[in-house]
Specification:
Nucleoside Triphosphate Pyrophosphohydrolase; seven-stranded mixed sheet; two-stranded antiparallel ribbon; 9 strands; hydrolase; NUDIX_hydrolase_dom
Length: 170
């Protein structure tokens, strides 16, 4: 059976005051950069939505909220969440995603950590943050930043916004 994860994708629209009258507000998404030595020097293809695995029987939305807080160090903003669907990643993992519009602006993030033998074969265990950066990206730039398989999540977000009558914003 495939591993299961749940996550939250925050989105916002660029500040209308910063745009010319002819421009529509640009959709932006909030992504986190994966921590640890494997991802340290990678940018494109190294960002993801805050997410984490869950066990059978767990409440998926509660897991998404928990994982967001573990990876970011702050709770999910108190805004309505909408289910975007479940998406198969290139690893085979299934990620169930919830989305919310929020102008989330944390001063900093503080991720939980994981242990890893590093350098490999050294016998030394080191602690690394699961997430080492987080920021807003215009959705088109985000397509290059996210790990393979998460482009479909961005597509689903755009479809959801259009279906919700927000086409004036896209």
């Amino acid at each position: 059976m495939s591993k299961q994860s749940a996550g939250i994708l925050l989105y916002r629209f660029a500040d209308a005051a910063a745009l010319s009258a002819a421009d529509a507000p640009a959709l932006e998404v909030w992504l986190v950069h994966m921590g640890g030595p494997f991802w340290a020097r990678k940018d494109d293809g190294a960002w993801t939505i805050p997410k984490g695995e869950y066990d059978k029987g767990e409440d998926i939305l509660a897991v998404a909220r928990r994982e967001f807080e573990e990876e970011v160090g702050l709770p999910v903003p108190d805004v309505p969440l909408v289910g975007l669907g479940s998406f198969r990643q290139s690893s085979g993992k299934i990620v169930t995603v919830f989305a919310a519009e929020s102008d989330f602006r944390p001063d900093s993030i503080h991720s939980n950590t994981f242990s890893l033998e590093w350098p490999r074969g050294s016998g030394r265990l080191r602690e690394f943050p699961e997430v080492d950066d987080a920021r807003w990206f215009p959705v088109e730039e985000a397509r290059a930043k996210v790990v393979r398989g998460q482009g479909a999540i961005l597509d689903a977000l755009e479809r959801s916004i259009r279906a919700g009558g927000r086409t004036d914003r896209l």
